[in-house]
Amino acid sequence: MTHPVRSADESSLNALAQRWLREVAAVGYVPGRRAKPLQEIKELLLELVSAVTAEPFELEPGWRVGARLVELRMADPKVIGVTVRLLTAHLPQLFDGDPDVVGDRVPRVLEQVNNGFAAALRDTAMAIGEDINRAMRVTWQADKSVLQHRLQYARLHDPVTGLPNRAYLREALRRLTAGGGRGRLGVCLLRVDGFADLNDALGHSHGDGLLEAIGSRLRDLVRSWQDTARDQSTGPEDDDRYLLAHLGGEQFVLVVTGTANAHQMVKVAKLARLALRTVVLPSVDGYVPRVKTSAGIVEAQAGSRTEPDEWLRDVHRALAWARADPGGVMVFEQARARADIVRHRLAAAMPAALERGEFEPYFQPILALADRRVVGVEALARWRHPRAGLLVPAEFIMLAEQTGLIRQLGHTLLEQACRHGAAWRSHGHELLINVNLAAAQLADPGLVAVVADVLYRTKLPAEWLQLEITETAAVDQYRQVLHDLVELGVRLALDDYGTGYASLRSLSRLPVTTVKLAAELVADLEDGDDAAAAAIVRHTIGMCHDLNITVIAEGIETETQYRRLSRLGCDLGQGFLFARPTSASTLPLPEDPFPV
Amino acid sequence: MEPNTWVPEGVDITVPNASRVYDYALGGMHNFTVDRAFWHQVQELFPEAHLVARANRAYLGRAVRWLVEEQGVTQFLDIGSGIPTLGNVHEVAQEVDPRARVVYVDIDPIAVEQSRSLLRDNPNAHAIRGDLRDPDAIVWHDQVISFLDFSRPIAVLMVAVLHFIPDEADPRSLISRIGMALMPGSFLVLSHAGPEVTEEGLQRQETARQLYEKTPTPVVIRDGRQLLDLVDDSFEVLEPGVVAADQWRPDPEETAEIPPQPTALVAVARRR
Ligand SMILES: C[S@@+](CC[C@H](N)C(=O)[O-])C[C@H]1O[C@@H](n2cnc3c(N)ncnc32)[C@H](O)[C@@H]1O
Predict the structure, then answer these.
(1) CA A124 to mean position of chain CA atoms
(2) Model-wide pTM > 0.90
(3) pLDDT tens digits for range A82-98
């Protein structure tokens, strides 16, 4: 049996294809112009026709046609319904052969179309499901990494300036110093001076703006250095020589790798300070504030400190020095840091030491130069430190001033000195007791009461107490206090005269009855040829005498000095030549012939 | 602008999502149970709702074909592109001109990721994540700026997306921002959900709108006048003006004729 069926003519084939597409498009969306999908549908139809007419008969193409519909995205579930209905009704009409054979073959082919469609639909749905899954995972991961990235960024950058922050700097330093590091490394810590004031002056709302301006100025500067470094680059490592970080607030850090010496870092610091001075700020009350900074520097072998915090600690120390230095830039030095540590330990020990009474006055005799008779003593502070031994003022007075303990210290010394003075008096030794008064004590509104109380309790007559004040620019503002002290009957001496500020003016304005010539002036007298030194001293003494002021020379160490001072008419003197300061109990009393 | 600076919306498959609901409406399979359930609710109100989606999609195809064939546009920025379903912009455009370049932008990360996997082998089409409410981030996105040539005309598509932009987000200025980046001769292709024409239809529409309130992308219905108002003077709205989607340059050659859908309002404008 050859050719049991014969396929139909082209036009009825076209007509059926068009109808099929129309029905498909009615139930499921088929985009675009008709031509292309029609072509596709027609090919499917042809494939079905050849399947039905093929000898031997094959079912396979039916399956392929069903699957192909899905592939063509004519995949709405209703598509298969209309397809089967339409083709069941009209496909047989395309053949004129044995109706039984056609009637048998067409439904079997269509069954395969249905199966192929269903299977492809299932596969597609599952594949899409998997793809959605994957897409979700990808987005989720992408979101996570964006978040992580952002968290990481936030963790490592300052929110105001966007510059690397302390954590970033630490990590960078750790990297640079890992395994002993390579070459040298410079770290410069820049701090805006008086930031809080500047902030106040500009209005707090400008605070962040100010930091941003500073940050971007430094960023520009570093970028310009980087560009230069790149231009002169000898290798890729030169690209990354600079790191700018913002520790928050008014502190910025510059790290430079491959430095040759500390001097190079000083230059970096100076350029940065200069650049910041040109930051344009809004004017305040008609004047334009400038950004001034101090800079601390550490420059050393990269491996010299293994912990990032060690670099930061040392650069902070250097900054502290820089802030106290008019130059504003300081390089870290190990020796000075060690001395600092000692001082800090002392500072920490001081409050307890005051409680335990470890401070006591030593006394240095003051003599009348004419007959070398002891007429008074200057009380000088000593700290009987349980481990460090006897400490002299140079080692702790500054600390006491910085920590604010100076008032308490001054108080206890005053009291002890007056007590000794009163005791000596009761034994018939009339000594003028000289006690130093620190600037912080002058600023104490309770000072006059304290002095009165001490005098009352120790029973030392007020006129036998002489308080020594140092001439500083600030003394002027305490004139009232000084007058009140004089009211008490206490005498005042101007200490360290001749080295400080407006000496002449203070003399006429302050109620002082004694002037103590600075040891430096006395030392100058050692040189017999120094006519100028002699003239200054002579002039000072003359002037004091005109004003009815007594003159005490400090730091007399040699006979020459002594002789010349006597000749110049100086009244009193003290110094190693006569006696070193000693404890109250070992003080040689006036009756004893004084060893010369 | 860094691509990383905007907060990812995250993927929540427990609420219906506009892109997936729309995909389902067009017969797609890139959707979840919530999306299908949501669509069934909409269809209860509007049994013909899928026809609106089709009318909209068919308009999109015609507009793109017209732009490539008749206006010689070969660059497309499709904002609110959704899930790649049938008749995607690149398919239509590249069928006419294989060099046509398309960047798809959507706020939905899954839609973007699915677009990416579909476009894997297509060097002339990309998909990025972006929010129409931050137009600068889209225009200055690395992949946009490096892939599209802004010195030549670009067609920007905002099809069925503007109704997700509430008045508070100032859609007019968003469109202006985008317009500023475009050369004269560039195009805007817009479509928008418009009001029903009968009183009863309006009521049902209001119910449907309330359904959308529960999605991350509530819908604002705007009429033709309001749609025109979203476009500033730097654009000229082309003939036939704002019309129903099926009225816009109908193509007798199109596969299926869809009954008129007055609620899909569309317009095409040219940058002056
Ligand atoms: C209804 S679909 C339209 C898809 C395609 N433009 C169309 O008309 O055939 C809307 C698409 O806009 C997206 N969409 C919603 N708000 C968006 C926004 N603010 N920015 C970008 N895409 C947004 C949705 O995620 C969704 O994929």
Answers:
(1) 60
(2) no
(3) 999 999 999 998 888 78
